[in-house]
Amino acid sequence: xxxxxxxxxxxxxxxxxxxxxxxxxxxxxxxxxxxxxxxxxxxxxxxxxxxxxxxxxxxxxxxxxxxxxxxxxxxxxxxxxxxxxxxxxxxxxxxxxxxxxxxxxxxxxxxxxxxxxxxxxxxxxxxxxxxxxxxxxxxxxxxxxxxxxxxxxxxxxxxxxxxxxxxxxxxxxxxxxxxxxxxxxxxxxxxxxxxxxxxxxxxxxxxxxxxxxxxxxxxxxxxxxxxxxxxxxxxxxxxxxxxxxxxxxxxxxxxxxxxxxxxxxxxxxxxxxxxxxxxxxxxxxxxxxxxxxxxxxxxxxxxxxxxxxxxxxxxxxxxxxxxxxxxxxxxxxxxxxxxxxxxxxxxxxxxxxxxxxxxxxxxxxxxxxxxxxxxxxxxxxxxxxxxxxx
Length: 390
Known about the structure:
This protein has helices spanning 10-64, 69-72, 84-97, 127-135, 154-160, 164-173, 183-204, 210-220, 223-232, 235-238, 243-248, 255-271, 275-299, 307-314, 361-373, 376-387, and strands at residues 324-329, 342-348, 351-358. It is mainly alpha-helical and 390 residues long.
């Protein structure tokens, strides 16, 4: 029992006791919260140390792992099955060389990135999501083209597809906000398209220089490419123009207009607060082009004229593992781009180990062998299959 002080009523004493108890309870809660935070901080620090240790170990492994391990060791372990952990290491090295482990090159000790740009209507995808999207590029089996994310607002949708000619005509009749054209949406959409593709290319091509990345981006953001994406979804059928403009101009087939429509649609999604949906859509549309560019970048590696010999040795140098170089696609006389190139497959036991493209069959065959050598697991399996028939 609390001792009653002189001159203090029973009610006042009761109130003081209650206040003291409340203060004590708050202090206890605060102490418990501090203890929980300290425990979580200690757990975070422990996890961070373990993650750093694992990342450094993996980086060290990839650095020490030679690209041509199997050919280097031919003759030392001719028939002995190589440890599966070596196969795993080589698979990781191959995946890293193809850009599939781009997250390994990220400096995680730096201040953590939140959204690159963020407010209630506009937020770029976090770097981690972009990096994950790139990591899954080669293995992606998602149907293409991806579904178009619908804009929920009818007012925004109308404006996205309204040409300035119709907007000007409407503005003479009405002063409402909904009478504008798609040009304002195009402005912000252009920014989102450029930013998203810049980050995507940055992670997809970790070895590319600034100039090479700029050149790649210009291909993806070109009017021709954006117009082709718009055409996939029939944007031209939804474009609203005045009859006079439709009859007297090429607006309904103009590449620049279609590209602007695509950017306006991205802007419409952003206006609706769905910029992440817009970016995911852009990434999905760009995936085939990314894969194609990665294959082209492989072809630009210095030609190894001894690649066929190295592949023969990696397969054990036996008749049972003879490599057949089959022309998959001949070059087109007077063709442009990839049509100018021969495509050759390196096949063993009826299975394709690698493909190569070049201006002549000899170099295409060498590049097919180089491609096969970059897949050590497949080479090892083919080698084993040949030896099993001896």
